[in-house]
Design goal:
GPRX protein; mainly alpha; receptor; GPCR_Rhodpsn; 2 strands; Rhopdopsin 7-helix transmembrane proteins; membrane; transmembrane
């Protein structure tokens, strides 16, 4: 039975590594090869971090976790290098996810500010901030490691191998900086985004006949600051379409936030418990399990942050069509069928904010119309309008 469990565990680790390699490579190539998709710079950076983790970190994790490699011995320098890659890539991946959530928030709630402020310089500054913070946290973890020509088994090469009371301080700082604060940001941001989508779906529900008609608002900035003119009116009941659309939006949010918590909460909870509890040392089967649950995030992220986006899926379908020489009509039908079933949160919000006059353009927008919609926009409840410079 133990041999069977060992083989199954090894196959699962290899499968996760191969999935992370292929999925992150595909999403990166699609974004880099398509000029219109290069605005997803943080998604591309997340795929790059996860791809580096799949190349360097996950194979070393297989060696450290499987009993087939019990005879592998690491020197102190090699163990330090593994810890550097482990902590640095984990920090960079989680910080990138939190920045992506903030970017989506500004894209929806502050669209004009996003168009003006989101420049290449700001994106590069965000990437530099991610790596500087990750390297600083990693250097803090390597403080106090013993010097010399010592060696240890690959299975024992963890952050707890180096003795010292500062490891407890490091694990607490690492958990707060790379999990607690990003989790608070993600919950706050996606909560605000969902409220905007909820009010947008309610806006297009028929208003009861007894309710007074709202006053016509001018296009001045002062009048646009008023979020909802009918705030004091009773909320209209959701029709089946609006109810399903709202459920689709909240399901997308639950999947994104739930995937993040399921992958990283066991990892940080285990390390916090191991460092705080007196007489408890990390390592063993428990650390291997929570580590690979966290590593699974490297294989899942390209699906949740890359392939979930309709634009990336459509471009991937075009590239596949060009490779297989398939007719254009088949790919367009496939794209439309996918869009009707697997609509991501941002496209749901865009559809929910379409008015009757622009219904036709919202169903089949051209690239030019998409650009005009992005610049002009439709009034979305909850948005904070800014005056464009």
């Amino acid at each position: 039975q133990s041999i069977t469990q060992e083989v199954v565990g090894l196959l699962c680790m290899v499968l996760l590594t191969l999935t992370a390699l292929v999925a992150n490579t595909v999403v990166m190539l699609v974004i880099l090869k398509t000029p219109l998709l290069r605005k997803f710079i943080f998604v591309c950076h997340l795929c790059a971090v996860d791809l580096l983790s799949a190349i360097f970190l996950m194979p070393l994790g297989i060696i450290s976790s499987s009993s087939c490699f019990n005879r592998v011995i690491y020197s102190i320098a090699e163990c330090q290098g593994l810890m550097f890659l482990n902590i640095c890539f984990i920090s960079a991946s989680i910080l990138t996810i939190s920045i992506i959530s903030v970017e989506r928030y500004y894209y929806i709630v502050h669209p004009m500010r996003y168009e003006v402020k989101m420049t290449i310089r700001l994106a590069v500054a965000g990437v530099i901030f991610i790596w500087v913070k990750s390297v600083l946290i990693t250097v803090l973890a390597l403080v106090g490691w013993p010097q010399g020509n010592g060696a240890t088994s690959a299975s024992r090469c963890t952050v707890y191998w180096s003795p010292g009371a500062h490891k407890k301080v490091f694990v607490i700082i690492f958990s707060i900086a790379c999990f607690v604060l990003p989790t608070i940001i993600i919950f706050a941001v996606y909560g605000s985004v969902y409220r905007v989508a909820r009010m947008a779906s309610l806006q297009h529900t028929p208003v009861p006949a007894q309710a007074p008609a709202p006053r016509h608002r001018s296009n001045s900035i002062a009048s646009q600051v008023t979020i909802i003119t009918t705030r004091n009116l009773p909320l209209p009941r959701l029709t089946p379409e609006r109810f399903l659309g709202s459920n689709k939006a909240i399901l997308t949010l639950v999947l994104i936030v739930g995937q993040f918590l399921c992958c990283w909460l066991p990892f940080f909870a285990f390390h916090l418990h191991s460092s705080v509890t007196t007489g408890t040392a990390g390592g063993g089967h428990g650390e291997m399990v929570v580590t690979w649950i966290a590593y699974s995030s490297f294989a899942i992220n390209p699906f949740f942050y890359g392939l979930l986006n309709r634009q990336i899926r459509e471009e991937l379908a075009r590239l596949r069509r060009s490779c297989l020489n398939r007719p254009l009509g088949q790919e367009l039908c496939l794209s439309l069928s996918e869009a009707s079933v697997q609509e991501n949160f941002l496209q749901f919000l865009q559809r929910a904010t379409c008015t009757l006059e622009t219904h036709a353009s919202c169903i089949s927008p051209s690239p030019r119309n998409r650009l005009d919609q992005t610049k002009m926009g439709f009034p979305i409840p909850g948005q904070v309008p800014e005056e464009s410079s």
